């Protein structure tokens, strides 16, 4: 892995964060092609579908090395294209679906986004009301999705829709694969509190997709949707601690430079952040041991997700206090979100714009993919067996 | 009906992905031992006064389960196991609120004797320690890293050999230990001694907030002592023992916290108010979930600390500070939440919760408070890297 990275990256590589926004985007696109050519874009996939067929341990090593040197594992949409729908198709898809969609995902021809949440169905996802009805050989879809990250960059969307309005909430849902390049699909950007517009509303007005574009069984979409959410985290147990440690080291550098490290209160909080990120590493090693033994992520993921998202809010609040009055002025390079939308890119300069934006983005961590409250309920009910 | 000892939904295997089968079996034997031989009634009896039972149980622990010699080499009767097994012992001791000689005798004294490299002293004391027949302790200057103004005891050479003078505070098992190791300043620097006589030694047991552990003040007036290591060369030994002691307290904290979570969750399932189990209310459920997160993270931290104590792959002092801060603070918070979730009954003397609450606070403060450790951590990680 190190040889591959050494051969493919410039000798003076310091991470995507050392590039300006435009250069970072251009790099990400180029880098994706390189990964594609080596099969590293979907390292866990079997080679017949364009993957590298790596074992879980090899996947972890690859992810760790990428996180260390600060290169992305794909472009923004690849979380949805490869990690989510690609993996789901591998598990649930028909042979025709795999043959058709997987190569197009890897080539970049199809770029996916996720149509799950709705204005009236957030934490209570099963309360969704987008409907799909069969009309001959096509599904007709009507309704609205929201918080669709990277939806403006996608040309396909996987949609959870109600296909049996009379069935109980969880039983009448199907997962549909819908092309976005049609008159019945409209994407409107939503601006988030950092000022950026990464997520969107997606409106469906008599939108259509072929009858065979159902993943799993018709009305059996809930089960499929739940396995899909499990793919969100795998080798994250190894990469999150690396990413957050890199970020914390950058904060330490800032605190040394501006003298905050001499303040006893801030010093105590900085040490506390170090304890926090180390504990994340220990927890990661424990989760990883389970992952490598073949246990699926399951409810354990709730512990990890709750932990890192709460940690990150605490550390970015600290960063603004370390910056002190410098936090009043947005100056310098903003995060590009090429690497991830959790921390700023590896190698980013210690500018106030970096920390301010990251602090704003961190507020979403305890909301998306299950709020902290939902995670605690999962831990209480699934891990501790407390009654509903 | 849910019995108090019913395990939580999560299997033990899932909690311990890094333990092998032999380690799990050992953990199970230990747990059974403490459940039958050191129930809460034994804890409470020993809080009042030293009991015969304590001595008997310690001998059994040493002789039947081999706990005293776990990490010691075979030459002195030990079994040459690792800090991983020692950590399992400590976790079960924490779970059972055990306050017997293990921490002072084994973690402090036996480790110091081994690390001192003094073969003669080792041969003299360690086999008896392994057999459970000799207890010992180590009096750190200031008992760790605290800010007490008490000066460190000093030692000087006399015609008849070394003598130690001064006061050592908050010495674990100091009133009862058969042998006392003392950190003392000499002209050459930090040194380590074994007191060789009761002459000039006054041991005063002190009243402790956490009654599950006994502390004493030792007043020494030219007590004859034997030097371990060369004079002035004990710093490395003492620092390593202190790091191991921090990891030991962290492991105990994990065991104590596990017990608190287990009992609290079981209670939340059976205690009904407003016609439903209180564990079905989110305010209660979420507090339990937070306890579980603290427990899992602290367990992972302690397991990693033990692995590093074995393989030396990381800076042990730094790691021990991190692990101790997290495990001890987690234990305290969880013990406090245990009182809260049991409600009025949790505030009573007869309930177990206050025993953990006090022990958790003592765990936080011994061998360096969280603040002391964070200061030490900051000194390391905020230093400019070369």
Automatic annotation (TrEMBL), chain A:
All residue ranges annotated as the Acyl-CoA oxidase/dehydrogenase middle domain in the record: 113-206
Database matches in Pfam families: Acyl-CoA_dh_1, Acyl-CoA_dh_M, Acyl-CoA_dh_N
GO MF term list: flavin adenine dinucleotide binding; oxidoreductase activity, acting on the CH-CH group of donors
Domain Acyl-CoA dehydrogenase/oxidase C-terminal positions: 219-383
Cofactor: FAD
Domain of life: Bacteria
Sorted UniProt keywords: FAD, Flavoprotein, Oxidoreductase
Location of the Acyl-CoA dehydrogenase/oxidase N-terminal domain: 2-109
Record InterPro entries: Acyl-CoA_Oxase/DH_mid-dom, Acyl-CoA_Oxase/DH_mid-dom_sf, AcylCo_DH-like_C, AcylCo_DH/oxidase_C, AcylCoA_DH/ox_N, AcylCoA_DH/ox_N_sf, AcylCoA_DH/oxidase_NM_dom_sf, Mycobact_Acyl-CoA_DH
One Gene Ontology CC term in the entry: plasma membrane
Family membership: Belongs to the acyl-CoA dehydrogenase family.
Record-given protein name: Acyl-CoA dehydrogenase
Organism: Thermomonospora echinospora
UniProtKB/TrEMBL annotation, chain B:
All residue ranges annotated as the Acyl-CoA dehydrogenase/oxidase C-terminal domain in the record: 247-381
Domain Acyl-CoA dehydrogenase/oxidase N-terminal span(s) in chain numbering: 21-133
Cleaved signal peptide residues: none
Domain of life from the UniProt record: Bacteria
Cofactor list: FAD
Keyword vocabulary terms for this entry: FAD, Flavoprotein, Oxidoreductase
Gene Ontology MF terms: acyl-CoA dehydrogenase activity; flavin adenine dinucleotide binding
PANTHER family named in the record: ACYL-COA DEHYDROGENASE (PTHR43884), ACYL-COA DEHYDROGENASE FADE28 (PTHR43884:SF20)
Annotated family: Belongs to the acyl-CoA dehydrogenase family.
Descriptive protein name: Acyl-CoA dehydrogenase
Native organism: Thermomonospora echinospora
